[in-house]
Specification:
Shape: globular
Radius of gyration: 17 Å
Largest sheet: 7 strands, antiparallel
CATH architecture: Roll
Number of helices: 5
CATH topology: Pnp Oxidase, Chain A
CATH superfamily: Electron Transport, Fmn-binding Protein, Chain A
Number of domains: 1
CATH class: Mainly Beta
Distance between the termini: 23 Å
Structural class: alpha+beta
Order of helices and strands: HEEEEEHEHHEEEEHE
């Protein structure tokens, strides 16, 4: 099969989402200007550099109120900070709960049974149930051109200025015990 994305693919679901796998899930916590916490998972997330350590995630617009901008993106543009909380097998249900579109007044952490804890260098909280956190400062954004639908996508780049790793994940040889971490990733559709 060959297709040009601008012409469509003819399949019931977009195959691109299942071809770039596995995708780690960026579980992004942010604060708005009034100090309200937002927590949302992003499956278009990854590291892009290690010196300085930099991560990115892509935020789609168009499916929520106002200008279509998701709360996470709006908050990060306003404050310049966010935390990437690592999602694991043990946190999968709570992570999925935080993917729902809710009113800004809803406390997504409380709804998902999660515990906010203070960060060291940025204002947005970390999630206690997550074993790894990247405290990030906004480096910049890039708006992707879109020619096939009415959605807009903004790529957010953040420098990890602080990294928290649960002590029990560090093995005697100084490496991270990935099996113990039990990471989860997006595999394409709703799997």
């Amino acid at each position: 099969m060959f297709y040009e994305p601008k012409d469509g693919h003819g399949l019931p679901k977009n195959p691109f989402n299942s071809l770039v796998v596995p995708r780690p899930i960026g579980w992004i916590s942010s604060l708005d200007g009034d100090g309200n916490v937002n927590l949302a998972p992003y499956s278009f997330f990854n590291g892009v550099a290690y010196n300085p350590p930099t991560v990115m995630f892509s935020s789609g617009h168009g499916q929520v109120e106002d200008d279509g901008m998701k709360d996470s993106l709006r908050n990060i543009l306003e404050t310049g900070e966010f935390v990437q909380n690592f999602s694991t097998w043990d946190t999968r249900a709570a992570m999925n709960d935080t993917s729902a579109t809710t009113a800004k007044s809803v406390d997504e952490l409380a709804e998902a049974g999660l515990t906010p804890i203070a960060s060291t260098l940025v204002k947005p909280p970390r999630i206690m149930e997550s074993p790894i956190h990247f405290e990030c400062k906004l480096v910049g954004t890039y708006d992707l051109p879109n020619t096939t639908d009415n959605n807009k996508y903004t790529v957010v780049f953040g420098e990890a200025i602080g990294v928290h790793i649960a002590d029990d994940l560090i093995m005697e040889n100084g490496q991270i015990d990935i099996a113990k971490l039990h990471p989860i990733a997006r595999m394409g559709y709703q799997d």
